[in-house]
Amino acid sequence: MRTWIAGALVGLGLLAAGAAWTQTPPATPAPTSPAKNDYADPKTWLCLPGRDDACAQDLTATVVQADGAVAKEPFKAADKPLVDCFYVYPTVSNDPGGNSDMTANREELAAAYVQFARFRAVCRPFAPLYRQFTLTALRGFMTGKPIPADRFLGYNDVRDAWNWYLANENKGRGVILIGHSQGSGVLRALIENEIDGKPAQKLMVSAILLGTNVPVSNRTGMWGSIPLCNSASQTGCLISYVSFRADSPPPASSRFGKVDSADSSAACVNPGALAGGKGLLRPYFTNRASSGAGNAETVWAKGKTIDTVFVSTPGLVSAECVNKDGFSYLAVTVHGDPADARTDTIAGDVVVMGVIQKDWGLHLIDSNLGMGDQIDIAGQQAKAWTSK
Prior knowledge:
By secondary structure, this protein is an alpha/beta fold.
């Protein structure tokens, strides 16, 4: 396990670069020449139920209280999960081509582990590999040296994985769709093309699409026929946001928190306060020291050693959705106290050559910020959907 967990923050530290793709998902998939994947082959999946894989590793967390006290929090997967979860990971592949191959390297494994595995507390996990638009292609594009890449191939793969899941595993079960960055962009296209207004919509418990701009009508408050979630008992709804520090809002150049249409706004749903307003978040951050990423260690509590990959900090972070200057985003406030032993800040900014890229906000930790809340909501939605 440690072989690939050691690269968790290394790989996820690069995922922000894929956001440019996520803002313009394909409306209609284009035909591609590569052969289709066989999603009946377990090797084409990062996570499947009942398997020792990326989602079945140690998820013990250390809870760091405001006074610096620490305690281990064991993880327990649901014995008989009521619903399924279908996850698409963000831009993490360092494969040399424009599209990744179908080998699960440590980047893909780490993404599923850090962003998705904890959802096993409420659902059966399904996470397909797909031939995504790579970091290599993004670097080429951003430096003016583009390399050939098929922007539709990854979507087609995920669509095929979804269809295989529906035909072979779903059996009428509810399903929660979860993604981040490029993964959210791919799921956005999947929902628009294959779910919204289609028979599969009745199976959708909810969609959690983070780190991408989902256009919501200013008139109806809907994304197509899908409303924003405003209570944990609501089903068939959307949770989506892009996150920024409250004291560092998106600059005019930011690609996050805005959409092209004047009739729509980027969706923002606060998992810490679904009905609106401010609310505390229950994050599950990753501990740099235990991940072996080689970055500076966060001192979560002075004088205390944290040896788990996950760290929870009750009461440290709150958030509210803000709509200002043409941007709609989750404004995150850190309630540090210099007088206590706990950390007064959090990492999560995109940093290039020592300079914080403010237009990215807290993209690197979109998923982690409200993960505890998302899982709690998913559990309540699963019960509500099943009861119907």
